[in-house]
Design brief:
Layout (H helix, E strand, L loop, with lengths): L3 E8 L5 H14 L5 E8 L5 E3 L20 E2 L1 E2 L7 E6 L9 E7 L2 E5 L9 H9 L8 H8 L1 H11 L6 E5 H6 L1 H11 L4 E5 L9 E3 L2 H14 L2 E6 L5 E10 L2 E10 L8 H5 L12 E2 L6 H17 L4 E10 L4 E8 L7 H5 L5 H20 L17 H11 L1
Parallel strand pairs: 1-2, 1-8
Antiparallel strand pairs: 2-3, 3-4, 5-6, 6-7, 9-12, 10-11, 10-12, 13-14, 13-16, 14-15, 16-17
Length: about 400
């Protein structure tokens, strides 16, 4: 029986580029090589696509040199159902011609992208056009999960618990920063957390306790995004995370973790600094979290409801804040492609990383089958009734149709 050709796409033009590299290398090393031929597909910070054996090694990326032996620049054929990666080889000899050489033919793809240009629905849209099965949430859920403003509005519409917040565009901040800060102080009380709307890994996130620190936090956040969310803070919260795995309404929730922070904010260095080769798996945590059974059940139940409401696929991680003073749970965010694919949470429930990959691939193939079972062949006689006689004729034809 032939192996599945499993593409792993990672990197891309994002502030979380390096985090994506770590997560992807973890996944590729964990995949069962008796089942899969793993094909690394690295998107550089310039947006160029590459494959090749050196991409399995961490040293290849510090720094990345595309001229290194074994690295091949490739292009994905956008023809629906093709799945072909090709490379352009230059002509040889006086009368030779440039030609495309087939490098790989993908059966399935696991996007291991964090942040913009990959986790935000853009790559998912490309894969939908290519009709390639892929093991992450779809276009809608990915886009919704990337933008914290859209995400919070969606959660509020579903009746899910979120913290009070407000948001502003960079253009408004540049026009009148004092008015923006006055509005924030009117709507929210300190402390507040200031976050770029479409960024993860705590990059650009700051805690503000007064007008001075608020201004500094907003200036930092607007360096990373044109849209910034300002959210009410909680004093001494418990941070709790839960992963969900599944597709098509059938899903299961992982054990709950409690990350250990070095301060009031779970920073980028908290997540990745202690051992950069392990990504989110290196984060200090208590697993399972020491919470009451009632709170554990509430988090797992709410996580499943969120997963279903967003029509997610594969593996996600949902982050929460629990306010002890209020005895109330709040959703912080959903990560549709979580750091390290949250494999450590599933290992705690007895599912190895290799088994987790198998289940993600199964979700991808099931979603592809669902898509193929939909009817895309509706035809009509509309074109027969339209005649094009110049610009005016075209307009009249469409109007009459």
């Amino acid at each position: 029986m032939s192996k599945m050709q499993l593409g792993v796409i990672f990197g891309s033009r994002t502030c979380e580029h390096e985090v994506s590299v770590i997560s992807a290398l973890q996944l590729m090393r964990a995949a069962n090589r008796d089942t899969y031929d793993v094909i690394p597909i690295y998107i550089s910070k310039k947006g160029e696509w590459f494959t090749g054996e050196p991409l399995f090694e961490m040293a290849t990326f510090s720094p990345f040199e595309e001229s290194r032996k074994g690295i091949v620049r490739v292009t994905l054929d956008l023809t629906a159902g093709s799945g072909v990666l090709t490379t352009l080889e230059p002509a040889k000899g006086l009368f030779g011609k440039d030609h495309h050489r087939l490098v790989a033919r993908l059966d399935c793809v696991i996007p291991v992208m964090h942040g913009m240009h990959g986790e935000d629905g853009s790559l998912q849209g490309l894969l939908e056009m290519c009709n390639l099965p892929y093991a992450s949430s779809g276009v809608g859920a990915s886009a919704l999960g990337m933008d914290k403003v859209y995400m919070k509005d969606f959660f509020k519409g579903c009746g899910f618990p979120v913290l009070p917040s407000c948001w502003f565009l960079r253009k408004a901040w540049e026009a009148d920063p004092e008015q923006i800060m006055e509005q924030i102080e009117k709507e929210l009380s300190y402390p507040v957390f200031v976050k770029p709307a479409s960024l993860g890994s705590s990059i650009g996130v700051s805690r503000a306790t007064d007008r001075k620190s608020l201004k500094e936090a907003l200036e930092v956040a607007y360096e990373f995004d044109r849209k910034v969310l300002v959210e009410k803070g909680i004093e001494d919260p418990l941070e709790l995370n839960c992963s969900v795995l599944g597709y098509n309404g059938e899903a299961k929730a992982s054990p709950i973790e409690m990350p250990i922070t070095s301060g009031a904010l779970l920073s980028f260095m908290d997540k990745y600094g202690s051992n950069s080769s392990k990504g989110m798996a290196s984060l200090k945590r208590v697993l399972p979290a020491p919470v009451e059974p009632e709170l554990r059940d509430e988090i797992q139940s709410l996580s499943l409801r969120i997963f279903k409401a967003m029509d997610c696929k594969g593996v996600v991680r949902i982050d929460y804040m629990f306010a002890p003073q209020e005895n109330r749970l709040y959703i912080t965010e959903i990560n549709t492609i979580p750091g390290s694919l949250a494999f450590y949470l599933w290992e705690a429930s007895g599912i190895s990383y290799a088994e987790l990959i198998d289940q993600m691939v199964h979700c991808a193939l099931e979603a592809k089958e669902d898509k193929d079972n939909s009817n895309y062949a509706f035809t009509s006689d509309i074109l027969k009734n339209i005649t094009l006689g110049g610009k005016a004729g075209a307009k009249n034809g469409l109007k009459n149709a």
